[in-house]
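Predict both folds.
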Amino acid sequence: MRATDPRRELTLAILLCAAGGGLALSSGGQAWADVTVTRQAPLPPVAAVLTGSTLAPLVPACGLLLLSAAVALVALRGWGRTVLGVVLLVAGATVAVSGVRALVGSVDVDPGDLGTQVGLGDAEVAVRAVAGWPVLALVAGVLGVLAGVLVVLRGRGWPGMGQRYQRTGAGTGTGAAAPVRRQRPESAEDRHQAAWKALDGGTDPTDDDGAPR
């Protein structure tokens, strides 16, 4: 059985955080519900469109948190990653629950969110969910939860920032390994230059003892 690569797991967690955060931010800026307000006669009804950030302000906030976690995963190590994983679980669950609530129509619309028109205080508010964008928020939340589970279970064993550049070989007391210098074989040109240098120094290279004259 092939061992799991910690770097691939880290990369997967980062991608899950980035994808979940991006989808949450995109969903939060779109229409989640069409609202129809029926006011007392003779006032006409009022129609409005509410975005995800209005109905569920925590969705874009958690989206930013997921994007930030994608960077923090590289910087943190050990127990710090475990704590971050728990935060990811909470953020992902919050986004997912917000999407589900919008899909089932369990959203609270404050008349103050509809503006300051006359008669809104005593009006009847009918909300029709727009399915597409809350579903995207649900997907974003699931991605955040998956990232959190992966970080909590496996994050402590992943490499940290700059770990790949650390030297692991045995060295001197300073911990730095001495550079190894390779010598190439001596060529005829090297021997020729050495002979000339010996002559310049007053030594006959043909003598066995190499004594200067």
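Second protein follows, with its predicted structure tokens after the sequence.
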Amino acid sequence: MTEPAPSNIHLPVPPDLVERDPTRLRWGTVSTIKAPLGAIARFAAYHLDLGASLIDIFLDQPDPQVAEFFAPFPMVRITQCDAAYWRKKPERAQRSHQLRQAFNASRAYRRSEMHWLAHIDVDEFLLSPRPLAQLLAEADPEAAYLRIRPAELLAQDDPWRGPSHFKLTRRERGLTKRELADIYPDFGAYVPEGFLGYTGGKNIARTGLPQIRLGIHGVIHQGLPISNYSRLTDVHVGHAHAPDWAHFERHLKFRMSKGSYREKIKDRMRLRDVLDVIIDAEGNAGLRRFYDQINLATPRLLDRLTAHDMLLTAPLDLDDKVARWFGDLPREHSDR
């Protein structure tokens, strides 16, 4: 009788890969980025300020000026993903932004000298109440990777300075769908977590393990999900998915066709379905009404989120961190 194929795998963690001393522990990030210099500098400065030892960046759109700006800062490593970079690499790895992200992150993982490596994007910020090295040093020594729950940035006047407001998922707080409809009266029943972006979170992987593939939301060994993971319960990945209406509107077409809102076979009710209905019925005015109710940090929404313990407030202070780590940006990149 044929044995059923395994659905996941336990990947043992050798004791010599476990660093329990937070003063010796080194962690970093890896990202495939297509963004202006200002956004990259803010992302890098934020995570260096949090304690990262290396920010590993693959430029999906090569830009010599970005490399030149970061050249004096060895803690930021820039790789230009130009024709020379992709030469002799698998064609299938280049077919989409998602595949390029996974290919580059997995390549960075194999060469990493860190103890832990987080695969995150330029609009994502690790939110930790304590130095992240301390939490990683306390992690389960048998965990191959740690899951980080998502928080989504709300639209507000200036989220980059002072307190920045994020919302949490319904599942994290154990709410019912009916309670979610109390927070978002018109759309809570149709947007299961009340999020515009992903709801699965991200991961930080223990380095040095064999045959690892870092996906966007998963860590894979020889094609199988790894079963021995844990959660960083005090840490969130703050996602600035749609920090203002203009950003949401500008990226909507791409996200519906090729990005995070695109058709996915496993989805029963997708955000794209909701958006299609709104567009058909009310057009752009309906989209704006939807965005404002779901994502605009009005006093009413903040009160509702607070009442359900779904509001997370954490300072980003990105421009101050850029000045501290890198000094002044070139004038043409000083504005967001």
